[in-house]
Amino acid sequence: MPTRRFHGKTTTGCFACKARHVKCDEARPECKNCRRRKEECRFPGGDASSTTPPGNSSNGSSFAAPAVPSSHSFDGLDLALMHHYSTVTSLHLFPSDGGAHVWQGIVPAKAQLPSGVILQHGMLALSALELACHYTASGDITQATMYRARGLQHQQAGIMLFRVQLASEDSADGNAAFIFSLMLIILAFSSAHSATTKPSLDDILDVFALMRGPKALWQMHNDPTNGQLIETMSPERNKPSPFVPEQETELSRALGSLQLDEICSAAVGILIAAWTRFDVERQDVRGIALLPAVCSDEFREQIRQRKPDAMVVLVNYANLVSRFRARWWVGPWDDFILEAIEGASPGAVERALGRNNDVKSEMSAT
User: Fold this and answer.
1) Residue ranges of region Disordered (predicted)?
2) Whether the predicted model's global pTM rises above the 0.85 cut
3) Most buried residue among 85, 171, 289, 306 by CB atoms closer than 10 A?
């Protein structure tokens, strides 16, 4: 009887093989599996050129991420971060009755599945960047820098697995990818708080692009858990909304009277829907995502070209975002947006606010 050959489990294989739980031959610069599947092959320690996630430019800015750690190597700091996620971070992501249940219970449970390593990285990144935000606010830059570096490491490691799972037809992989796409949005917002430079207008457009991800993945993988996750973004349903129809009418008149071009007028319509349909006053954070998620490519291009009408819409979007400052991962993002607009097009914020005030004056006169 022939002797059966046993293969020891590799701990130094590429990220793609680890994500698929297959043996990696560790050939450099490209293993056999990745070469056969025509996928990008990357190893722990950065043997291949690193890929920068949206919102983390590689041009030397403070958004650049450190080297990617091994996807299965967790140390004592990571254990402390996971404890912090379970006891603190998961409770403060979304202000809803079911938020803690989903993010403290369901998501960690899914992270224990074979497809859940990506979620482990996401949870650790969220925990680390929340602590980075905390220490930045308290002025402890040393601690903030340490936690930020670890958070970006886990974000980058998760992104590597994310790309593999996007190509997978496994529904479990699709569900994990959907959850991670939500995490990426929070990470993009929160990482800016501890950065040494603030987001540029192009960085903000990258965040806009991230907000399209969950919608696309929802359509690809219609898992019931995805619906539960979306519901956690909604406010408590037993609290009455302070938003009244008269406010909706006034808001529609104010924004609708800005005399913008057709593309930007459509974007304004989305903004009005964000204020009303998703109840911004009651902290339904889906209101933040609506404009970036469904605005047209033409509108995004107008922002990129610094068109005056697009800047007016973006200033009003910053006003919407300001209502969510209480969320730790949002914070002063309205200021970041206004500063980015001003940096890209000096005087644009003042001109946009002037047009808003002119409309308000006309409304008062009538």
Assistant:
1) 41-65
2) no
3) 85
